[in-house]
Structure formats: C-alpha cells, structure tokens
Backbone:
C-alpha cells in the first residue's frame, strides 16, 4: 500500500526502489499541478477584487487581497518545490536506467567476445580435426599396405585359368620352401589352377635337402634356380623364341606365344611380380618348367 503523501521517500532517493521512485515522480507532477491551480485561483480572486472594488477597510478589502496573495505565494512556492523534487526523482530513475543499459551493453560485449573466442576455438578445433583426419588417413594407408604385405598370396584364379587355356604347354614341376605356410598354400593353388587349365602339373614338394647342400650359404630357393623370394619360372635354357617372347611381353608389342612365356605372363598378371631363370647348377631337364615358390617378398 502506497503511503501518503506518495512523493515522500522515507529512506531517501538512493535507497528507494524503482517503483517507489516512479510513484513519487508521478505524485510530484500531480502536486505541481495542484499548486498551479492555487496560483490560478489567487489570480482570479485578485481580478474579482479589482472588479468589485470593495470599500476601504471592509472585510472583503482587507482579507480578500491577503487571501489572494497567500494563494499565489503558496502555489508558486509549491510549484517550484515539487518541480525540483520530481526532477530529482526522475533523474534518479534515468540514471538507473542508463546504468542498466551500460550493464546490458557490457554483458553483450562480453558475450560477443565469448562468441568470438568460441568461434576461434572452434576454428582451431576444426584445424586439429583436419590434421587428425589426415593422420588417420595416412595411418589407414600404412595399415592397408601392412595388411597387404602380411596377407597370404593368391592367384586371380579364374582369370589365371582362362589365360592359360588353349595355349602352348609344357609339364610343370612345383617346388616350395619347406616350413613356409604361405609358399605351401600358393604352390597348391598354382597346381590346381594349372590342372584346371589343362596343363600337366606335379604335386608340389619341398626343395630337396640334398640339393640345398650344394651351397649352404645361399637361400634354399637359389639351389634349384629360384630367387630368394617370390615365384621364379625356371627352365633348362631360354630359346631364341622365348627370349623374343620375353621382349614382346615387356614392351607390350604382342602376347607371348611359348609355354614359358604364357605361364610367366599369367603369373605376372595374377601376382604382380615374377622372376625368371635358366641354366645354373641344377636346372630342370629340357621340356620341363620348374616353378620355385619362395617366401613372400
């Protein structure tokens, strides 16, 4: 409940609440209007006395003028006093409003700076994320390469068989490095594919121990004409036609037309790499192709 008079602030302007200041400012405005009315009444009374012009010494002449002057004086003093009080109360409201605006502006500035910092942090995070993705992609490439290196070797079976069908043929013997599981599996796969293509292929067998003793310092594959790793096509000798076929195979001029050539081409296309050898200390007999399956390169 608002106390009367409403313009009076018991605890002063600084301690008053905003709503108390608003009520007090409105009250001062109303009291200013009331004082202005007193001035108007006093002036009107002066005009009435001037028109009637009461006799000298009569009650109307004595008290009428005094009353009119009193009303005008009280009204003017009240207008001045209440105008000043209203101005002070309205000024305090304006000051508080400006302070709130300043606080809101500071908060918005801080929020904007926070948003800028957050944007900068997000940009840095995106950069780091991009770097992490690049590192992850590089690691994935390395992992894929490692999986490829560790994965067992396999023929492209169907294509390998089709490439050898209806081509020049020679019997094939297959040797592999003992105790190398991958070499053993690949030997069996090559044997099956050769037979499916209509070629004569022996059952794979380990490189003989007696042959390995020819030079115990070398890899066992080299004792039978093979290379230290990978698959080697070994023949007793290379004929002129086979040498020309190798040349055509390398240059891509035409498809090889000898048994050794078509077998080399099929293995190269299926495995991606192939070795060749001929002669040596322990070559295969004439008319026989030897496949030496060594460790994975």
Residues:
């Amino acid at each position: 409940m608002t106390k009367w008079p409403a313009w009076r602030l018991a605890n002063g302007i600084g301690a008053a609440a905003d709503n108390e200041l608003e009520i007090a400012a409105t009250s001062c405005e109303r009291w200013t209007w009331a004082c202005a009315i007193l001035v108007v009444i006093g002036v009107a009374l002066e005009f009435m006395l001037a028109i009637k012009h009461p006799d000298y010494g009569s009650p109307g002449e004595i008290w009428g003028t005094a009353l009119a002057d009193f009303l005008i004086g009280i009204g003017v003093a009240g207008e001045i006093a209440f105008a000043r009080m209203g101005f002070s109360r309205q000024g305090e409201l304006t000051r508080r409003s400006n302070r709130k605006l300043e606080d809101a502006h500071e908060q918005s500035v801080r929020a904007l700076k926070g948003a800028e910092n957050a944007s900068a942090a997000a940009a840095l995070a995106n950069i780091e994320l991009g770097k992490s993705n690049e590192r992850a992609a590089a690691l994935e490439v390395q992992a894929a390469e490692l999986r490829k290196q560790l994965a067992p070797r396999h023929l492209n079976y169907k294509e390998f068989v089709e490439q050898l069908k209806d081509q020049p043929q020679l019997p094939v013997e297959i040797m592999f490095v003992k105790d190398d599981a991958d070499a053993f599996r690949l030997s069996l796969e090559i044997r099956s594919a050769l037979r499916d293509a209509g070629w004569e292929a022996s059952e794979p067998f380990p490189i003989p121990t007696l042959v390995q003793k020819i030079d115990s310092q070398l890899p066992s594959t080299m004792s039978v004409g093979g290379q230290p790793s990978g698959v080697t096509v070994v023949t007793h000798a290379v004929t002129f036609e086979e040498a020309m076929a190798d040349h055509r195979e390398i240059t891509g001029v035409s498809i090889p037309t000898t048994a050794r050539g078509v077998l080399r081409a099929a293995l190269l296309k299926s495995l991606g790499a192939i070795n060749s050898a001929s002669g040596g200390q322990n070559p295969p007999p004439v008319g026989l192709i030897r496949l030496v399956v060594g460790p994975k390169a």
Remarks:
- Residues 18-147 form one domain.
